Input
Amino acid sequence: MPKEERPIIRTTAGNPVCDNQNSLTAGPRGPVVLEDHYLIEKLAHQNRERIPERTVHAKGWGAHGTLTITHDISKYTKAKVLQPGATCPMIARFSTVAGELGAADAERDVHGFALKFYTEDGNWDMTGNNTPVFFVRDPLKFPDFIHTQKRHPRTNLRSPTAMWDFWSLSPESLHQVTILMSDRGIPQAPMYMNGYSSHTYSLINAKNERIWVKMHFKTCQGHKFYTNAESMEVIGKSRESFQEALFGGIERGEYPKWKFQIQVMTDEQAEKFIFNPFDLTKVWPHADFPMIDVGILELNRNVDNYFSEIENLAFSPSNIVPGIGYSPDKMLQARIFSYADAHRYRLGTHYESIPVNRPKCPVYNYHKDGAMRTFRNDPGNPDCYYEPNSFNGPVEDPTCKEPPLKLDGYVDRYNHRDGNDDYTQPGNLFRIFSAQEKQNLFNNIADAMHGVPKEIIERQLVHFTKADPAYGEGARKALIAKGVLK
Output
């Protein structure tokens, strides 16, 4: 067949590959950057092409739905899925972060808000949370943070001491801790919470121009939260309250919806902004970067088999489509690799061939063999198992190449806490709480600090006070009132 009719090389998610000859590097001499998810995919797959000899979002709830684009943002992106009037089938999975598979749904926790869109250019995944920020900004600290949320190796119990010790030694966590300990920490069900990309991504338009973007999914059902006391009462009756609410509502035809909005920032604004706009512990002020309406997300169909469609569901920020890209966000850069690799470990080398993860478009690539290889991905010619080849095998698609990203500075291990303001935004959040919301925050903090050593509590109180003196004073009074501090 003529070259122009040859199939396009795609990632396992069905995304077109713009260059199969050159790795993504910082300058012509390198080094290679971790953002090159296609390089990582090729290497990680190769490592798993032979069957070896014998040798955090655990509990979730989900449903199928549709994304409908109601507004025109084509000046920002060429992504087909985001063009005016476009509709796209999708599936969502909500989850706890720290809780295990048997945890109660209504426990205080950050909640995952992950979305998979089955576009004509392959799968686009948004691996977000119900909060716009996170506890850490450097991926080197992510394993340490998660260790504090899991069971103590000796007691096999959750450890408040470990949590507060880490948080008190990591001031960048204060913004997320404030959200977690506020009324927002226990939503009543998935449909009553927002979803956020949290990370900064990029949008690329038809002129190959890039802008930075944060994505928001605002609940149309309104926010509903539980207090600690209400949560305990709910858990006493059911450990599956989220599943019951989401599944039951959709079965009754009560389809939950979210308004899809974005904030955008130009390169020039990013360079001049008061803080690093790619810092995952920060939000972009709405006054400076107003919300732009995009569309509506609706969940309207329950799964037929929970294990097949929710437990086997695998999201990764490496799954993007032309018109949507990454950013220098350090946490995002690491997750581009770590999410996909976690799925290769949990579900197997060919996890994206599982029906719920399988792209709706044709997929051709040069990955070979491995456990559970039950399909073919060549265009009908078994000689097409390497590239370049002379047998009309899949070829790259240079039209999906992104504009170059300008970098600055030397490669080094920079101290992300030097000169960083970790107190203004948590303080601003605290100051918009009502008097009752502030008191709830103080009481929730005190409840969560039972058994924590005094020196750790005092260290954390310093952070509260730096955010706002009233924050520190109120938390201290609650700790004394509840007998946590003498």
User: Anything to note?
Assistant: The chain has two domains: 3-400, 424-481.
